[in-house]
Amino acid sequence: xxxxxxxxxxxxxxVNSNFEELSRGIARLTTPTRxxxxxxxxxxxxxxxxxxxxxxxLHTVSLVVRWTPSAFWTEVGQHFPILYVPEGVxxxxxxxxxxxxxxxxxxxxxxxxxxxxxxxxxxTTKFTWPANWCYGSALWIA
Length: 142
Hints:
Elements: H1 12-30, E1 33-36, E2 38-39, E3 43-45, E4 51-55, E5 58-67, E6 72-73, E7 80-84, E8 97-103, E9 106-113, E10 118-121, E11 128-129, E12 134-141
Antiparallel strand pairs: 1-4, 2-7, 3-5, 4-5, 5-12, 6-11, 7-10, 8-9, 8-12, 9-10
């Protein structure tokens, strides 16, 4: 972007160039981008859910996932990853709460873990995680 000096007459080409650069910057901030997230092995997403949409600093993930082998028991405070955020995507601080996932009759927090760049489930009670589809959402600003 050209910097104009007070008292200097700006050329039409310089002014138009500045407006074009500004327009491209605004388009980057107002056009959503979509990225697919990598799953933890043995987790799968339903029909395209599990992808991330970013618009500027806002990042959202709609989840419909299931653990494919079978139901299992969760333990309080024993977090486990479901999805991984790609390199290059800005992320929140470690242990940031991103949203909630519903597993049968139970809703449990989703947290961001910086060590593996994962979206992880953090059970707050012991329950049987079902083998069917579970749904939730994650959201962060970074």
